[in-house]
Design brief:
167 residues, mainly alpha, Ferritin, 3 strands, globular, binds fe (ii) ion
Length: 167
């Protein structure tokens, strides 16, 4: 790997993380009654997304949709079958109950992503798109639900109001 390839990878990871960190900081500013600071964090967060997208393009990290789906399914499979099970065990041993709960929910949702991507791979391999559906996401744990928001989230138990429709 050339220096620039290494640098693009490092920069992409940094910008991607900064995007999420600034969104978390923005939520905190909202909670503290500082809506304009919150907006400032969102302005920077949006820019970090633009930077990350430019970097992933420059490193050739986006290929055909079928290749992207294969990369995505491998990532979700690794996370749901190896990485998070190990993280959950570590967190249990270290009595980190908040981390145990977070990782447990995440592992389930990554498993759902894996299954979504597998179905998508079947369709795209036949030259077809997936069926058009409405999706709702639990804003507490990330669980995706098709067609309508459920009474309670099957992963984390959050009520219907926690679900947000995905555009
Ligand atoms: Fe995922
Ligand atoms: Fe949930």
């Amino acid at each position: 790997m050339s220096n620039t390839d290494e640098n693009l990878k490092t920069a992409f990871e940094g910008e991607s993380q900064a995007n999420r960190r600034y969104l978390a900081f923005s939520n905190q500013a909202e909670e503290e009654g500082l809506p304009n600071i919150a907006r400032l964090f969102r302005v920077a967060a949006e820019a970090e997304t633009v930077h990350a997208l430019n970097e992933i393009a420059a490193m050739g990290g986006v290929r055909s949709t079928l290749e992207n789906l294969n990369e995505a399914v491998n990532g979700e499979e690794y996370e749901s079958t190896q990485m998070y099970p190990k993280f959950i065990e570590d967190a249990k041993k270290e009595d980190r109950s908040e981390a145990v709960l977070a990782f447990t929910w995440i592992r389930k949702v990554e498993n759902e992503h894996m299954n979504m991507y597998r179905q998508a791979i079947d369709q795209v391999s036949k030259g077809e798109d997936v069926e058009e559906k409405e999706y709702y996401i639990c804003m507490n744990c990330g669980h995706p639900e098709e067609f309508a928001a459920p009474e309670r989230c099957p992963v984390c138990g959050a009520p219907r109001e926690m679900f947000k429709k995905v555009d």
